[in-house]
């Protein structure tokens, strides 16, 4: 009986903790693909190191500018995000293949990538 109750609890917790992941629309993907950081130096790093995964729906990476993907991550705080970017995190490779990136570079990249890109008219 006890096992049964525990199993039921676990199932409830799981259901509560794993909401259906939001999927970006085609419009949101193309907005992500065309957005660039304003700072040319950061834009260069971004195009070299981060854009490939972070604008690809086929990857599990949070899509650039797509709020539902970034909101829960931002709640960890910037320091944690920078640390995860520096050290790697699950399928995210350490420094996102930018071996010469400083923490400051990573933070600027993350700030850009996690800033919501407003959905345009054709984003249905
Ligand atoms: C090879 C693909 C790949 C590259 C290149 C890449 N990322 Fe990622 N990134 C991922 C994936 C996949 C995740 C999601 C990891 C997870 O939560 O499962 C992720 C997650 C993140 C996160 C969120 C970490 C967290 O704590 O939730 C940040 C921040 C991030 N990437 C920053 C960057 C930056 C900055 C660059 C470029 C310097 C970059 N990524 C390049 C694949 C990549």
Automatic annotation (TrEMBL):
Q: GO molecular-function annotation terms?
A: electron transfer activity; heme binding; iron ion binding
Q: Which Gene3D superfamilies match?
A: Cytochrome c-like domain
Entry-linked InterPro entries: Cyt_c-like_dom, Cyt_c-like_dom_sf, Cyt_CIE
What's a Pfam family in this record? Cytochrome_CBB3
Is Hydrolase one of the keywords UniProt gives this record? no
Which stretch is the leader sequence?
Answer: 1-22
Q: Which UniProt keywords apply?
A: Electron transport, Heme, Iron, Metal-binding, Signal, Transport
Q: Where is the Cytochrome c domain?
A: 37-117
Q: Note the PANTHER family from the entry.
A: CYTOCHROME C5 (PTHR40942:SF4), PTHR40942
Please identify the protein, giving its name as recorded: Cytochrome c5 family protein
Q: Give the organism the record lists.
A: Undibacterium jejuense
Biological classification of the source: Bacteria, Pseudomonadati, Pseudomonadota, Betaproteobacteria, Burkholderiales
